Amino acid sequence: MASAGDEELAASKTDGFKVGEKKTVEEYAKLDQNDESLNRWKASLGISNSPTLPVDPKDDRRCVIHSLALETAGRPDIVIDLSVPGALESLRSKPFAIKEGAKFRMKATFRVQRDVLSGLKYVQVVKRKGIRVSKDEEMLGSYPPNTQDKPLHEKKFAEDEAPSGMLARGHYEAASRFVDDDDQDHLKFDWSFDIAKDWK
Fold first, then answer.
1. CA distance 35 to 32
2. Would the pTM of this model clear 0.90, i.e. be above it?
């Protein structure tokens, strides 16, 4: 499958929503320190006094996706370690099988560096024989830079169910994108999977 176009992988927009003024973590931490409700909000976001992790000055990414996993009850997770060279390429060329009708969820493990990441979303378009069969979008949330106390963020997606039946079985191709409120891509990739009668 040729990679899905930018329009197909566009994240939805909420009418009237404007992205707020950008602030650094230090500015958020000092913001209205005597406001109890704001302090609870900052704590829920994970803004703390723990030192942030060192960042390679040559790495200008704000969000680094470390791994993707497919979780199914009673089975070992299928984990794609994105730090391994060629991992993204193998996602497309070596499809994995999902048993028809199986309930599963995806999980992303990632690191945020430098500034607060606002409104991270996962957008996915699935095609079969070139025809789009689904477009899904999952809001993952906003995250502060990782700290020594919390070196990685982990987000489990909503549970999903694989299609079933003879017509549903076969090969599917997908394009996925991790994007934030500023419409900045953090990871964009193509991959493929097979819906099969049983796990392989």
1. 5
2. no
